[in-house]
């Protein structure tokens, strides 16, 4: 056979959209260096000084100038109000995408943990007090703690530079803050450090304090680390089915090389199914799954309806007449039901969406759905597909390949 007749008997596998975003995120974090110390100081000051936000369900929202999370200094951020404040706080957390494919080198480059059910929040200790705030900026607790400079105990550090910022989930049943990540410890910023180093440092430093002890006069709530495992068969099985002291709400995956990236990132992933979470599909106020699945999108200046992604995914648009009639404003978060036309996906990308407008969302909500969340929920609900993460890695990847193939070029609903 002539050399030019030699052909590969198979096509090169398609690189998923989520995998491309992962590679882009890793590239960006190596190219874009920022002043991490100022970023941490700004966040700590804002969490401590920000007034409590009332959470009236539906109040008219006044248009406010759009500001990015990095365009606000300490004085400005502490003066933000309403939807702009919620949007600013929402962009400070590192938010995982929903897992819709298996990352390359999963067993080598990723951690996995059992996610605690509860309220995601920032915890900041500084100036002898500890404050926790939800991702919409609302005050959760103000209390003394054993974190650096977190109480007015006699032996506590009083240095204004000795502050701490932890990314936590507050678990109501045992009144415990479960620490999933760290932004700053004793005034040292960890934004630019890899997840592998952040978790190592946090494990050592948290144990050195008495923050993991039970409540006391100078330490009202207990803190606890969420155990992280390598994504091999044993680690995934332990995270998926092993005993935990809290209610399990899915699995969290962290890329070991990822910096603490604010906003949605494909370098952190969440997986939920009926075996590891009570909240696989969004429910209504009564806890029931709606007849038609719903999505929340953000209205842009040009009428486009987009997800909370970078870059955002466009699901459709509203014409000017409808916007004027309903008195909608750019930045409003709007709820839609997915109608009979459903969603059309091709090669993992959205081609068509048949949406029915329902109304504005509760104003306490800070951001729209991500594309991965919408895609994941709709596939789980309407294809009835669910695979087990505790199977062998080869089987795990095979099942997901079959899942993706079944999902392509299919009109849902």
Automatic annotation (TrEMBL):
Q: Which Pfam families match?
A: SPN1_m3Gcap_bd
Where is region (Disordered) located?
1-38, 50-76
Basic and acidic residues bias spans:
67-76
Q: What is its main location?
A: cytoplasm
This entry carries the following GO cellular component terms, namely: cytoplasm; nucleus
Q: Which UniProt keywords apply?
A: Cytoplasm, Nucleus, RNA-binding, Transport
> What GO biological process terms does the UniProt entry carry, in alphabetical order?
snRNA import into nucleus
Q: Name any one GO molecular function.
A: RNA binding
InterPro entries recorded: Snurportin-1, Snurportin1_C
Q: What does this protein do?
A: Functions as an U snRNP-specific nuclear import adapter. Involved in the trimethylguanosine (m3G)-cap-dependent nuclear import of U snRNPs. Binds specifically to the terminal m3G-cap U snRNAs.
Q: What is this protein called?
A: Snurportin-1
């Amino acid at each position: 056979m002539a050399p030019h007749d030699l052909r590969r008997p198979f096509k090169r596998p398609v690189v998923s959209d989520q995998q491309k975003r992962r590679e882009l995120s890793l590239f960006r974090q190596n190219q874009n260096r920022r002043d991490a110390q100022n970023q941490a100081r700004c966040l700590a000051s804002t969490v401590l000084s920000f007034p409590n936000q009332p959470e009236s369900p539906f109040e008219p929202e006044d248009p406010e100038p759009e500001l990015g999370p990095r365009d606000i200094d300490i004085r400005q951020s502490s003066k933000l109000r309403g939807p702009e404040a919620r949007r600013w706080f929402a962009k400070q957390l590192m938010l995982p995408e929903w897992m819709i494919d298996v990352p390359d080198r999963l067993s080598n480059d990723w951690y996995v943990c059992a996610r605690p059910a509860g309220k995601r929040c920032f915890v900041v200790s500084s100036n002898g007090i500890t404050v926790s705030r939800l991702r919409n900026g609302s005050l959760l607790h103000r209390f003394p703690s054993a974190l650096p400079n977190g109480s007015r105990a006699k032996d506590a550090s009083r240095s204004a530079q000795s502050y701490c910022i932890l990314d936590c989930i507050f678990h109501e049943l045992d009144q415990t803050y479960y620490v999933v990540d760290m932004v700053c410890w004793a005034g040292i910023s960890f934004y630019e450090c890899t997840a592998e180093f952040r978790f190592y440092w946090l494990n050592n430093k948290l144990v050195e304090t008495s923050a993991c002890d039970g409540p006391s006069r100078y330490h009202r709530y207990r803190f606890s680390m969420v155990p992280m495992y390598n994504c091999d068969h044993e680690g995934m099985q332990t995270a998926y089915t092993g005993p935990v002291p809290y209610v399990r709400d899915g699995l969290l995956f962290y890329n070991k090389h990822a910096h603490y990236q604010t906003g949605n990132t494909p370098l952190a992933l969440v997986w939920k199914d009926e075996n590891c979470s009570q909240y696989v599909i969004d429910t209504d106020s009564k806890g029931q799954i709606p007849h038609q699945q719903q999505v929340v999108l953000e209205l842009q200046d040009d009428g486009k309806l987009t997800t909370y992604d970078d870059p955002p995914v466009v699901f459709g648009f509203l014409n000017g007449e409808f916007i004027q009639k309903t008195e909608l404003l750019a930045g409003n978060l709007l709820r839609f039901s997915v109608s009979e036309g459903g969603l059309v996906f091709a090669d993992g990308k959205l081609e068509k969406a048949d949406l029915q407008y329902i109304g504005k969302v509760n104003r306490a909500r800070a951001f729209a759905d991500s594309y991965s969340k919408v895609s994941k929920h709709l596939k789980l609900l309407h294809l009835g597909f669910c695979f087990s993460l505790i199977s062998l890695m080869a089987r795990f990847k095979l099942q997901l390949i079959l899942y993706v193939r079944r999902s392509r070029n299919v009109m849902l609903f």
